[in-house]
Design a protein that fits this description.
With about 220 residues, the protein is of the alpha+beta class. The protein has a single domain, classed as NADH Oxidase (3-Layer(aba) Sandwich), CATH 3.40.109. About 40% of the residues lie in helices and about 10% in strands. The protein is built from eight helices and four strands, in the order H-H-E-H-H-H-E-H-E-H-E-H. A four-stranded antiparallel beta sheet has the order 1-2-4-3. Helix 2 runs antiparallel to helix 6. It is globular.
Length: about 220
């Protein structure tokens, strides 16, 4: 088998102090990120969204298949259609589909079946995962993991650029592919309203788990 083309890695090794400064600055920024459910209708620069999607497209993926499509929706009629379809699924979820424990866990977030942000946010990003390639026999690998990494990078990029987001997952989401005319091999993965927070936007007063609850160190010093 011929060796694939290779090139020298473009990598800058930083001094420890600069590494710590950058890590602290990035953490400080991302620690302020919150899920927003009340958006201003003020327009946002769409070239910024495009650059953030380009950033997401740099994510690693199984066998470098890049199994994702990001559909940016700004058309008011399409947003209204998406909201109507999403709320129909949410009504079924809150009206009996969801287990009682799930609804109990959602209470601190004050969510319900009404999703006005799907219209008020100036842009929606519908993320689609490619179950397989478009051509017959074109296989994709680690699709969920690959698209999940790309979405994480997208959310970080949007926040860093000064935009607020919501990760919305109405279930099932098949309506998104139908409304947006996506091919059969693409499956809706996530819907992300994007914009500026509404004036006096309120978010739940929640705390994230501390580092010692999410980090396990295995340094060989403990028998």
């Amino acid at each position: 088998m011929p060796k694939p083309p290779m090139r020298t890695l473009d990598f800058e090794r930083l001094p420890d102090a600069e590494m710590r400064r950058r890590a602290d600055a990035f953490y400080g920024s991302l620690a302020t990120r919150r899920t927003v459910r009340a958006f201003s209708e003020d327009p946002i620069p769409l070239d910024v969204i495009e650059r953030c999607v380009a950033t997401a497209g740099t994510a690693p993926s199984g066998a470098h298949k890049q199994p994702w499509t990001f559909v940016v929706v700004t058309d008011p009629t399409l947003k209204r259609t998406i909201r109507t379809a999403a709320e129909a699924q949410e009504q079924a979820f809150y009206g009996g589909r969801a287990p009682e424990r799930w609804l109990k866990d959602l209470e601190p977030l004050a969510t319900d079946a009404h999703k006005p942000m799907l219209e008020s946010a100036p842009a929606l990003i519908a993320v689609f995962a490619h179950k397989h390639g478009a051509a017959p026999g074109d296989q994709n690998y680690y699709v969920q993991e690959s698209v999940g990494i790309a979405v994480g990078m997208l959310l970080a990029a949007l926040h860093t650029a000064g935009l607020a987001t919501l990760t919305h997952t109405p279930s099932p989401m098949g309506f998104l592919g139908e409304i947006l005319g996506r091919p059969a091999h693409e499956r809706a993965f996530l819907l992300i309203p994007v914009g500026y927070p509404a004036a006096e936007c309120q978010v739940p007063d929640l705390e994230r788990k501390p580092l010692d609850e999410i980090l396990v160190r295995l340094d060989g010093s403990t028998p």
